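Page 42, continued from yesterday. The earlier attempt failed because a stray header line got pasted into the input along with the sequence. Redoing it now with the clean sequence only.
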Amino acid sequence: MGKKIDVTELILRDAHQSLTATRISLEDMAAACAEIDKAGYWSVECWGGATFDACIRFLNEDPWERLRNFRKLMPNSRLQMLLRGQNLLGYRHYEDTVVDRFVEKAAENGIDVFRIFDALNDIRNLQRAVTAVRRTGKHAQGAICYTISPLHTIDGFVEVARKLVDLGCDSICIKDMAALLKPQPAYDLVKAIKAECGKSVRVQVHVHATTGVTMVSLMKAIEAGADGVDTAVSALSLGPGHNPTESLVEMLDGTGYETSLDRKRLLKIKRHFNNVRARYKEFLSNITGVDTEIFQSQIPGGMLSNMENQLKQQKAADKMDAVLAEVPKVREDAGYPPLVTPTSQIVGTQAVFNVLMGRYKVMTGEFADLMLGYYGETIGPRKKEVIDQAVKQTGKPLITCRPADLLKPEWQELREAALALPGCNGSDEDVLTAAMFPHVASKFFSTRAEGPKNLGTDPEQAAPPAQEAGKGPSPVRTPITYDVRFGGNTHRITITPA
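This time it went through. Structure tokens are written below.
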């Protein structure tokens, strides 16, 4: 018997978030859960990321109830979620006791494995969440956001891994959100983490498939000693999604490694989601093939589609090439942050503003905060002239402390605000929902009694996909759009979650 490679299945969360804009309802996933539960996975990712937001924004579905249902439907599985560190599942930092409360409730409702990341790989932004998970007795998996830049090195990522282990993480995940992890760096990074942190430290590798090279990267990571990898059953894989679970199983034949996954059950899961996918045709990603240009631009597909939408809304679609050239300059000025939620949207939107109105003539509030340290520390120095402009525009000081240290206790205030919303049931879960998405939660609480919506359609009657119709939702990730006013004009900003 060969070495067993653990597999985390993504089809209930990141797979449909990447390919169908997070619109698949629990109703369309539930029938496959019995097979998923018995297929032999190490864990099943089914919550977190953009699913929480999508549930209340589009599906009229209580995300906590979704989690409780998954717990009932998959009693034998480790249920896993993606948590944005001090941001939880929202788009700002939350005070420490709110982080504690969220983790406690997520564990209580069914989460076993918390994959915790910070967009800047700032360990300070992970500390509280990791401590909170450990207090519940659940599995804390610290994630390294992988990216490439003149400053990002194997040694640097290994140092992040060592800090995560020192923090008390039960395992390490290499999180490659833009399919930038090539085969040799995958081998070198896993090998180096094992050498530095010890062979007993569990290493998981998460990659997307967009560039077409990352199935080989998974193989090289396995050869270097990776203990587990992430995949998605083929019905919802490839493109901006992930590598197919079935392909991984077949690839390992004769290599001395095996997954112990049940091929017959994988086939049943595939057939179910083939039917489901057809019903969500209008939400399918425009990206169906391979995009190696990401290696040069380092712009993930979701970020690219956001910038295209922003330019179209400003009737400036002809400026796209200029924006693409501006993104790496903005990223350098900001200290080379990895381009993942929310930094990808912050950098991309500022690049659009720079092209339309002149370099840093106007900053978004989020970009100013990034420059001033309110998201955390970047790997490289941030450009002084841009910092000075951010101070001038916002009136805020530059900070070097952990951003959450500036926050006052807010649970009671959040609770009072939630209880004032019609339809709030007074539970901690509802308070947390309102804390992360106050405006969306208000509408959701008032309509929750109507029950979940299913946005799937009869494949024969489905609207044409967005790329054919010339309209529709952001093709890769669930978009969140809001307006920014300056100079008497309103400009629309789109945030798309990881």
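Notes: The chain has 22 helices and twelve strands.
Reminder to self: strip header lines before submitting.
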